[in-house]
Design goal:
The protein has helices spanning about 10-15, 25-35, 50-60, 75-80, 85-95, 105-110, 120-130, 145-155, 190-195, 205-215, 220-235, 245-255, 265-270, 270-275, 280-290, and strands at about 40-45, 65-70, 80-85, 120, 135-140, 160, 165-170, 175-180, 195-200. By secondary structure, the protein is α/β, with parallel strands linked by helices. The chain folds into three domains: about 10-70 and about 125-200, P-loop containing nucleotide triphosphate hydrolases (Rossmann fold); about 80-115; about 205-285. The strands form three sheets. The chain has a five-stranded parallel beta sheet, with helices on both faces. Helix 1 (about 10-15) packs across helix 2, helix 10 crosses helix 11 and helix 10 (about 205-215) crosses helix 12 (about 245-255). It starts with 7 loop residues before the first helix and ends in a 7-residue tail after the last helix.
């Protein structure tokens, strides 16, 4: 398959057109994954742009995004494929009600285990796709070990064995991104199969650039204040630190409220946009009272 990107710089420039500001590490790994046809395991705190990266890559390459949202209890029937049992039963009933002797069981079995009764789930859909595809396997760390082993088997050869139909091999290798919030340690085998990318909270200047790009009409002054306050809050010991997406939500909230200049009282009154635990809100409010990050400049 032809390469999607000519260079890491090409990746960075392309992603910028869809308002995703990639650093050198992100653009470099995406370029290598494209050339080497290897999956990318993207780890990091929630809300730092891991899922958005897959969406952005799909957008700039004109690929179809296929998403497998992982959760505890996800099994083969929801990740790979299953048979349309209701349709099969209706087919059997219709054959029984048909005039004459009808089909033999072997003929009927061959009929109901055919393509028209197969329900493709995200993994099989990505493998069978003839159009360009980006496969996003989101929050892979939520999977149980058994399902992770199934995932590893599929990603090793990009093919699926369906007993009733035979082996289905990929006509093209999809660009695969797996995201993890580090809820549990993934297997060494899965990690070996992938290129590794860690996306952390961005540096202040880069986060400011993200805010200016993703929040229309915000002033540079307000964007600067927003990221400085968020940075100071992230340095506290909290249950959940504010993500980049929550930084953007806060910036949009301030704009909606008509606030052009943030002081400590304004910040404290809107902390519920940034933080989602009352204990975190109280701790951050106390910190803003004692140490105003805007005065410390």
């Amino acid at each position: 398959m032809a390469a999607r990107f000519e260079s890491a710089a090409d990746v960075k420039d392309a992603l910028k057109t869809v308002s995703y500001l990639a650093d050198d590490a992100i653009s470099g790994v995406v370029h290598l994954a494209d050339r080497l046809e290897k999956p990318i395991l993207v780890e990091g705190p929630a809300g730092t742009g891991k899922t958005e990266l897959a969406k952005a890559v799909a957008a700039v390459t004109g690929s179809r995004l296929i998403r497998l949202q992982c959760y505890e209890g996800l099994d083969e029937s929801k990740a790979l494929y299953e048979w349309n049992y209701k349709k099969q039963l209706l087919r059997i009933q219709a054959e029984r009600n048909a005039e004459g002797e009808g089909a033999t069981w072997s003929e009927l079995e061959e009929d109901i285990f055919s393509e028209s009764f197969l329900l493709s789930r995200p993994l099989l859909e990505a493998i069978r796709a003839t159009d360009p595809v980006v496969l996003l396997i989101d929050e892979v760390d939520r999977l149980e070990i058994e399902t992770e082993a199934l995932l590893l088997e599929v990603l090793s050869d990009y093919q699926v064995s369906i007993p009733e139909l035979g082996t289905v091999a990929a006509e093209q290798v999809p660009l695969v991104l797996l995201t993890s919030n580090n809820m549990r340690e993934l297997s060494e085998a899965l990690k070996r199969r992938c290129l590794f990318l860690h996306i952390d909270y961005p540096q202040m200047e880069r986060e400011k650039e993200i805010v200016l790009t993703r929040v229309p009409d915000i002033s540079e002054h307000l964007a600067d204040q927003v990221v400085r306050i968020v940075r100071s809050i992230r340095q506290l010991e909290l249950k959940k630190h504010p993500s980049v997406s929550e930084t953007l939500d806060w910036a949009r909230t301030l704009l909606l409220l008509g606030i052009d200049d943030v002081d400590a009282e304004t910040a404290k009154s809107t902390l519920n946009i940034l933080l989602k635990y009352q204990s975190d809100i109280q701790r951050a409010a106390k910190e803003l009272t004692v140490n105003d990050p805007l005065k410390a400049r």
